[in-house]
Amino acid sequence: YLSSEVSAANVPEILNIATLLEDETLINKCAKVLEVSPDAFFLSPTIGSLNSDSLEQLLRQDLPVSSETVIFKGIMNWSRMNLKSKESEITTTSLRQEVNKYLCYVRFLTMSLEDFVRHVLPEKIFTFEEVESIQFNIAGVPEVNLPSLFSTSKENRNRFHKSQLDICRINSGQCTRNTRYYVTLSNPNILTCIQPKSIIYLSKLEYEGNIGYVGTLTVKDSSGLKFRDV
Fold first, then answer.
1. Among 71, 76, 107, 188, which one has the highest count of C-beta atoms within 10 angstroms of its own C-beta?
2. pLDDT at 229
3. Where is the BACK domain (predicted)?
C-alpha cells in the first residue's frame, strides 16, 4: 500500500517507515521519487523530517544532484535542524559531531577547488589538516593521504534522470560534406525547466543514413555556438 502512495510531499515519512522495516523495495521507491528533483529536497527544510537512519539510507542512493556541494549542504541542513529539535546549541563543534557519521558519503574529490572553498570551508567544521589534505587531493597532488573518514571516490554521480533526457535523430538519405541539418526535440516540453544560459548536454548523436567520408562533426546551437562536450 505505501509503495503506491509515495510522493514528493510524503517521502520523509514513508522513508522513515521503510528504513525502520528494512523494506528495500520501498526505500528504492522513495529514491526514485526524489530522482526528479533531488537538489530541491536536499536544500529544503523537508529534509529535517528524516531520522538519522533514513538520512543515511538516502545518502547511499546515487541521486542525480547537480553538484556534490548539494549533498554536503543537505547534510549540514539536516544537522542544524536536528540540533534545533533537540534544543542543543548550534556551534561548529556540535555540527561536526552531528555530521561526522555522514561525511563518508560526500565525494569531496569530485568538487572543484572553487566549490570546496566557496561551499564547504565557510562551515568551519574541518581541521586545518583535513582541509589541506582534501584540497591537495582535489588538486591531484600525489602521495597525500586522505583521513580514513573521507571518501576517496572521484566518480561523479549520475547527473540526469531519464525524465530529463530526450533523443534527437537526424534521418536523411545521405550525409554530404558541409551539410547543415536542423533538428528538433521530440518532446519540446523538455525545455520548459531549462533556465536562460543553462548548458544543454549532448550525450549521444545518432545518424541513420550513409556517411560517405571521414571528417569532423561539429554540433552547434541556433546561435552558432558549439555545444559543450560531455
1. 71
2. 42
3. 11-121
Q: Is the pLDDT of residue 97 over 90?
A: yes
Give the phi and the psi of residue 127 in degrees, each rounded to 5. -75, 165
| Residue 18, amino acid | A
Residues 124 and 198 in one domain: no
pLDDT tops 70 at residue 206? no
**Cα(204)–Cα(230) distance, rounded to whole angstroms?**
9
Could you tell me which residues come within 8 angstroms of residue 11 by beta carbon, excluding any fewer than 6 positions away? 30, 33, 34, 41, 46
pLDDT at 87: 94
Spatial CA neighbour of 50 closest among 68, 75, 22, 67:
75
Report if residue 217 sits inside a domain. no
Residue 51 lies in a domain: yes
Distance CA 3, CA 29 (A): 7
Q: Which residues contact 69 (CB under 8 A, 6 or more apart)?
A: 111, 115, 119, 120
Whether residue 222 lies inside any domain: the answer is: no
- The pLDDT confidence band at residue 142, using thresholds 50, 70 and 90, is very high
User: Are the CB atoms for 58 and 20 separated by under 8 Å?
Assistant: no
pLDDT top residue among 97 and 175? 97
